[in-house]
Write a structure and sequence with these properties.
Helix content: over 70%
Radius of gyration: 30 Å
Structural class: mainly alpha
Number of domains: 2
Largest sheet: none
Order of helices and strands: HHHHHHHHHHHHHHHHHHHHHHHHHHHHHH
Number of strands: 0
Oligomer: single chain
């Protein structure tokens, strides 16, 4: 017994030292990133004084350092909250409770506690760094050195109130401050999930004020940069959190008595938690890697037009260095998932090599963030200034006027909206893989549902990146095609695909106290929010009332002028149309579903409202958003008011025809439900000898006998 004990302690000592190693090495990681930032800044000349005004060495060097710390802290804080919400159990598992005794049955899991401590501390650093970036950015743009003078203070407040860059970074400061405050007070996974979503909104203002804000193909550049930042947050932040969690995982394993590689007993719980956490992060990191690479290539293609610009400019060389480092990180990630994680239970080197590779990966990522910080301050080869001879359409929309709309151009002219392209590709791949998983298990899944889902995604791709997206920015009729297709056409096919039912059948259920995708879907289906928005009256009013509020309030103008408004418009109309179709003809589970006669009444009322609004729009002599559609400068043979009348006609057609098809589908569903109910009653009658009918007839016979005169 003593020999075994000595052998075990001897074997576990190096592993325990390894668990404690990340803390001092984290400092080395930060130094690696700062060194990469300094070298890149010197090589590109970013650290040299400006030609017109010099904001001082403190600003020249302080701004890149503040940005580097900001990006790293932001990624760490957001990733920690996301992992706490979806990957780490908030309380100890049942097996651990038995080992620790009833006194700790309701205790918070120490890893969960530690990860929220990391999120809170990183949130504080994020907030302070965001304030530093805000102040130093003003100093850099204005050429004023940091001081407490009245001119600096007045200029700074004007910058925060009136300049887009200042407004964006002020929004980041506010979001980070609210995020940090809430993280210190919330412990429920649902609350942490929504706090994580709040923190992710900070990506939006950062994407809007990058190089993408004023370059060609504004929508593609902003959306690709936003996706790039989202992938970086999940990928980089998750790795940093794992490195910082390593000491806590080691102490938890040592407390169990067998170490992270042990089998059986309570130590297996710690080993299972480590392996489970790594596997869940590995899945998120794989998706994040694809997002980072694809969005990075798209964004770089907008800034680089030729191979000479890629290898012959400072901007291009920084891109090449970033690409090579990303390839190395992808290789290490592949080693994690394919070779090391499956061997974690062995007592050989994989457990130690895993965290060594994590630290190397964090160091490389830190260097990449440093390079990216300098890249964001380096002018790209392609000019981002609006040309002096820009057309009215280019000035308003950011794009040159497309050709005169003809039948074929609606299907051959494309301008990818990369945000929705990413969403559509993800949903299509997930649906096909889920269907294959269900079929391999031996369960049946109709092919028509799959075809309907993919067709709906194809329609969504066309309406967000095809002709309707291009002409929807310059013609009211084009916008109406986009709007009504989003609301009335794509949702029908998507709803008939029954994605929620497929998800509940294909996704595994978790038993460790965490909430995975399946648990979050069930929570949403049974939530009070779902009960409200899927109520038949609410769904119908939201569906029809959105049209009136959108076109006859300033909301339409905000959508046309602001990129965020445009993306929110797409989401809103798609969501309202999906909920409306789900309530009427969907097969997915709902908290409540109206009776069949009520469904037809709702459809009829909606058709009448559509017709009324379309007629009013067609006969109106007042141009909606005249400052936008009236100043496009096209000479296509019709006026903006005539185009608006055509848009009203399209609204009528694209609203009534799908509604008629939905009423037909609702009638078919009603008929099938009646047949199913009739068969059920027949089976019940066969089992009971039609006792219910006999009792019913006997009741009438007794009533007849009582009514006979004596």
């Amino acid at each position: 017994m003593s020999t075994s004990t000595v052998r075990t302690s001897t074997q576990e000592r190096p592993r325990a030292d390894l668990w404690r190693a990340p803390l001092p090495l984290t400092a080395a990681v930060l130094c690696t990133g700062l060194l990469a930032l300094i070298i890149a800044g010197v090589l590109t000349g970013v650290s040299e004084p400006g030609e017109l005004s010099d904001s001082g060495a403190l600003t020249r060097w302080g701004l890149p350092v503040a940005r580097f710390i900001h990006h790293l802290a932001m990624a760490t804080a957001l990733a920690a909250v996301i992992l706490a919400a979806v990957a780490v159990p908030p309380q100890r598992g049942p097996r651990q409770r038995r080992k620790l005794g009833n006194t700790e049955a309701a205790a918070e899991h120490p890893i969960f506690t530690r990860i929220l401590q990391i999120a809170g501390l990183a949130g504080v650093v994020w907030t302070v760094a965001a304030v530093a970036v805000l102040v130093l950015t003003f100093s850099d743009l204005s050429g004023l050195q940091l001081s407490a003078s009245d001119s600096f203070a007045s200029g700074f407040f004007g910058y925060v109130q009136s300049i887009a860059n200042g407004q964006a970074w002020t929004a980041v400061v506010l979001i980070s401050a609210v995020f940090t405050t809430l993280v210190t007070a919330v412990r429920a996974p649902a609350g942490l999930f929504f706090i994580g979503l709040l923190g992710l909104t900070a990506i939006l203002p950062m994407a809007l004020v990058g190089h993408s804000a004023s370059g060609d193909d504004h929508y593609a550049a902003v959306n690709s940069l936003g996706l790039h930042l989202l992938g970086v947050v999940v990928w980089v932040g998750g790795l940093v959190v794992l490195a910082l969690l390593a000491p806590s995982l080691g102490r938890e394993a040592a407390r169990r008595g067998t170490g992270p590689a042990g089998r059986g007993g309570a130590g297996a719980d710690s080993a299972d938690l480590t392996e489970t956490l790594l596997r869940r992060y590995s899945t998120l990191a794989g998706l994040a890697l694809l997002t980072v690479v694809a969005s990075g290539v798209i964004n770089a293609s907008l800034r680089i037009e030729s191979l000479d610009q890629l290898v012959g400019t400072e901007y291009g060389l920084l891109l090449c260095a970033k690409l090579l480092a990303t390839a190395g990180l992808a290789l290490i990630g592949w080693l994690h998932r394919s070779w090391i994680i499956p061997r974690l239970h062995s007592r050989s080197r994989p457990a130690g090599m895993l965290f060594q590779l994590i630290l190397v990966e964090v160091a490389i990522m830190s260097a990449v963030i440093g390079i990216s910080t300098i890249l964001g301050r380096t002018a790209p080869p392609v000019s981002e200034e609006l040309p002096p001879d820009a057309s009215p359409a280019r000035t308003l929309t950011g794009y040159d006027l497309p050709p005169q709309p003809e039948g074929s151009l609606w299907f051959t002219l494309w301008r990818p909206d990369w945000l929705w392209v990413a969403v559509i590709v993800f949903l299509a791949a997930w649906y096909v893989l889920a269907m294959v998983r269900v079929r391999r298990r031996g369960d049946h899944w109709p092919v028509l549902r799959t075809a309907s889902w993919l067709l709906g995604l194809l329609v969504l791709l066309w309406v967000t990146s095809g002709g309707p997206a291009v002409y929807g920015m310059v013609l009211f009729s084009g916008h109406m095609i986009q709007h009504m297709t989003l609301t009335m056409v794509a949702p029908i096919f998507l709803v008939l695909g029954s994605p929620v039912t497929l998800a509940l059948r294909s996704l595994p259920a978790r038993t460790d106290g965490t909430r995975g995708p399946r648990e979050w879907i069930l929570w949403l289906v049974h939530s009070r929010f779902s009960k409200i928005v899927t109520h038949p009256i609410v769904a119908a009013v939201n569906f029809a009332g959105s049209l009136l509020l959108f076109y006859y309030t300033p909301v339409f103008g905000l959508v046309l002028n602001y990129h965020v408004g445009h993306e929110l418009m797409i989401f809103h109309f798609l969501a309202t149309g999906y909920i409306f179709a789900l309530v009427l003809i969907g097969a997915d589970p709902l908290p409540q579903r109206p009776a069949h006669p009520m469904r037809l009444i709702i459809l009829l009322a909606t058709m009448v409202f559509h017709a009324f609004l379309a007629v009013a729009m067609t006969s109106s002599d007042q141009l909606i958003q005249a400052a936008w559609f009236g100043n496009m400068g096209h000479d296509w043979g019709f006026t903006a008011l005539e185009d608006q009348h055509r848009g009203g006609e399209l609204m009528w057609a694209l609203g009534e025809i799908p509604a008629i098809l939905m009423s037909f589908a609702a009638g078919v569903i009603w008929s099938r439900d009646d047949k199913r109910e009739t068969k059920r009653l027949d089976r019940e009658a066969d089992r009971s000898g039609d006792a219910e009918l006999h009792d019913y007839n006997d009741m009438f016979a007794e009533m007849a006998e009582r009514d006979q005169p004596r």
